[in-house]
Design brief:
Elements (H helix, E strand, L loop, with lengths): L2 H19 L4 E4 L14 E5 L9 E5 L6 H14 L8 E5 L4 E5 L5 E2 L9 H16 L8 E5 L2 H6 L1 E3 L18 H7 L5 E4 L5 E8 L16 H12 L3 E5 L5 E5 L2 E6 L6
Parallel strand pairs: 1-2, 1-4, 2-3, 7-9
Antiparallel strand pairs: 4-5, 6-13, 7-11, 8-10, 9-10, 11-12, 12-13
Catalytic activity: 2 ATP = 3',3'-c-di-AMP + 2 diphosphate
Family: Belongs to the adenylate cyclase family. DacZ subfamily.
Protein name: Diadenylate cyclase
Length: 268
């Protein structure tokens, strides 16, 4: 069976499964499936390179497929919840060029409005790196770090170096193909990475000079100084902060709040 017929069979079966399990959405993972969009009575989400939420029936979101299907499906779950397409406990069906799957959304993935509001290639790239660090660590050892993206003028104003800046004088960008190894190496340092909206790495080993109490930042019990600092800088400035804990949990902060939280090591 050629690839085109294979995909058509999967989508035909997906429509049957939607009816059988009362699924609330159909997710097509990879833009190569766009030409195979079927007529169906549930919302359709196309995961690829485009970002377009204007169509009531078909939503397009860009996610790096190199994260792996499990992590992409987890993030799609967050998107569906955030946009009130489905609720916790409800099910969606997803199709890739090679597989057909069913996912029931559980509360382990938390999100609030913000992460999927616009296409953000730099954030997606950092998320991909954070997932890899969560799963692999550095040389097998767990890693914890902070990435602060955007509003760099103010972020630098409210932070200082605690070690010499290893990126000073260099023009390295998180979108560069070979950058992941360098980021992994410096993720072992104390402090945060400071990254521009275009992806340029301005600094690492940066201490965030923010007082969460004065900023009225409130986080769930159990989160430590790294998360408070990330929440604080995202409230003090217009930046977005991504934290990675040694436990593997990734959190994204905007305006002092957690807008995305999940653990790539867990099976949902």
């Amino acid at each position: 069976m050629d690839k085109g017929k294979h995909i058509k069979v999967l989508i035909t079966k997906a429509l049957e499964v939607i009816n059988e399990v009362n699924a609330k959405a159909l997710v097509l993972i990879t833009s190569s499936l766009e030409n195979e969009i079927p007529k169906v009575d549930v919302p359709i989400i196309v995961v690829g390179k485009d970002f377009d939420l204007s169509n009531d029936r078909i939503k397009k979101i860009p996610l790096p497929l190199s994260l792996g299907i499990k992590n992409v499906v987890n993030l799609v779950s967050a998107f569906l919840i955030e946009n009130n397409i489905i609720s916790y406990g409800e099910t969606f069906v997803y199709v890739t060029p090679n597989t057909l799957g069913i996912r029931t959304v559980k509360k382990e993935i938390a999100t609030t409005r913000g992460f999927f509001e616009e296409a953000q290639t730099v954030l997606q790239r950092l998320l991909e790196i954070a997932v890899e660090l969560s799963l692999e660590g550095r040389e097998g050892h767990p890693v914890g770090t902070i990435f602060v993206v955007g509003d760099t003028r103010n972020v630098l104003k409210y932070s200082h170096q605690i070690i010499p800046n290893p990126f000073k004088g260099h023009k390295l960008n998180v979108l560069d193909k070979n950058i992941k190894g360098i980021i992994k190496e410096f993720a072992m340092l104390d402090g945060a990475f400071i990254i521009s909206n275009t992806g340029r790495i301005l600094a690492a080993g940066r201490y965030l000079d923010v007082d969460p109490k004065k900023l009225d930042v409130h986080l769930p019990p159990g989160l430590g100084s790294r998360h408070l600092a990330a929440a604080g800088i995202s409230k003090k400035t217009k930046a977005t902060a991504i934290t990675l804990s040694e436990s593997g949990v990734i959190r994204v902060f905007k305006n002092g709040e957690i807008i995305l939280e999940y653990n790539p090591r867990m099976r949902y």
